[in-house]
Design brief:
This protein is an alpha+beta fold. The chain has twelve helices and twelve strands. The protein is globular and about 55 Å long.
């Protein structure tokens, strides 16, 4: 028996199955193959899911259905079944700790938007049932503001905005979550002045003792040196993770905006924060410049990556990243304040024929305003 045989023997059976069929699973288990939530019913599990309820056929089914149960069926107590008591939910405005805090925040949100609907637009996943299954769930929130929120009394305004929730699940429970919401779109749709509201909320957070997540020194390179070169590929095979991380480093950290032609289809479609919608490389380059101008030292680091799909159908990728910078330049955020910012974001890409065909990027632009005016 070889060393590899011994290693395989020691591994849980579900991990071995997962490793052997990863490519097939990532091609077959996608939200696109589900067609509609009404077709998601109890059935035989289609992937290894040790510790998960047998009613879920796969991990995508799990994410979509627990979201529907909790938020639309208003089975709020299901949080005790699906969220760990020591859950951390990370946002750009701070971290929510503990299941009871999540429960309280959920009730508050439902009271503010009683007719809220959460439409699942995408679920990109990775991992396994031994080390944990990881999802990146892009969804659309829609509802009517009929109750009080942290922004004030009800406006009765109809709102619709995007969010992306990255979740790590083990044994049928979410144990950690990274949440990005298009909060600035929500503020605008409520009829509020974004700058005045950001200043008010930043002062409120400061007075309450809440410490905003402010970055330290920003370094794209060491000292006066340029950013490091991205490592060479280790294989001739197309690797979606290498491709996306390479793109981020070349365009955002090296400022090689011309390289967009190497990574993007000339007519690709981009959906971004605060409901930005762009098409084509020229518009995309303008968008990049609009962020580099107010934050000349801006740096982006990729924190997590996963994907579904295959070479034939195209890869659907999810990248969670952190953007850091200092507001020392003029641009769309007005007079420079000199304040540092640290913002979490998530990007979903559709990659086909070696190019990005579509991109959905989200970060909390209202949290960015709060950090600027803190």
């Amino acid at each position: 028996m070889t060393n590899d045989d011994h290693k395989a023997k020691d591994k849980p059976k579900s991990a071995i199955i997962h490793n052997e069929h990863t490519d097939d699973l990532k091609s077959a288990i996608t939200l696109q193959n589900k067609i509609d939530i009404q077709f998601m019913q109890d059935g035989k599990q289609q992937q290894p899911m040790a510790g998960f309820d047998n009613k879920f056929s796969d991990f995508v089914d799990y994410i979509i259905r627990i979201t529907h149960e909790i938020w639309e069926e208003k089975a709020i107590g299901k949080l005790y079944d699906y969220y760990a008591n020591t859950i951390n939910i990370h946002t750009s405005s701070g971290t929510i700790y503990g299941r009871e805090a999540v429960l309280a925040a959920s009730i508050e949100a439902m009271a503010a938007y009683p007719d809220r609907r959460l439409y699942g637009d995408e679920v990109i996943w990775g991992g396994n049932d031994v080390e944990g299954l990881y999802s990146s769930h892009r969804l659309t929130h829609a509802g009517t503001n009929r109750g009080w929120t942290s922004y004030g009394p009800p406006t009765n305004n109809r709102v619709s905005y995007k969010a992306i929730a990255d979740c790590l699940a083990v044994n049928n429970m979410i144990v950690e979550e990274w949440l990005v919401r298009d909060e600035l779109s929500l503020v605008l749709q409520l009829g509020l002045d974004p700058v005045a509201t950001a200043k008010k909320m930043a002062k409120k957070d400061k007075d309450s003792g809440l410490k905003l997540q402010i970055a330290g020194d920003v370094e794209r390179g060491r000292g006066q040196l340029p950013p490091p070169k991205f490592p060479e590929p280790t294989s001739d095979e197309f690797d979606p993770e290498f491709f996306i991380k390479h793109m981020i480093h070349e365009i955002w950290n090296w400022r090689l905006l011309n390289k967009a032609h190497d990574f993007y289809n000339p007519s690709f479609v981009f959906e971004g924060p605060t409901q930005r919608k762009l098409q084509g490389i020229n518009d995309f380059q303008t968008y990049i410049l609009s962020l580099l101008s107010p934050f000349p030292d801006l740096a982006v680091t990729a924190d997590h990556f996963c994907h579904v799909g295959d070479k034939l159908k195209g890869y659907r990728t999810a990248t969670r990243w952190t953007m850091r910078g200092t507001h020392t330049g003029y641009g769309m955020y007005g007079e420079p304040t000199g304040k540092p910012i640290r913002i979490m974001g998530v990007s979903h890409h559709l990659v086909k024929n070696g190019q990005i065909q579509q991109e959905w990027t989200l970060f909390d632009e209202f949290a960015l305003l709060k950090q600027i005016y803190a």
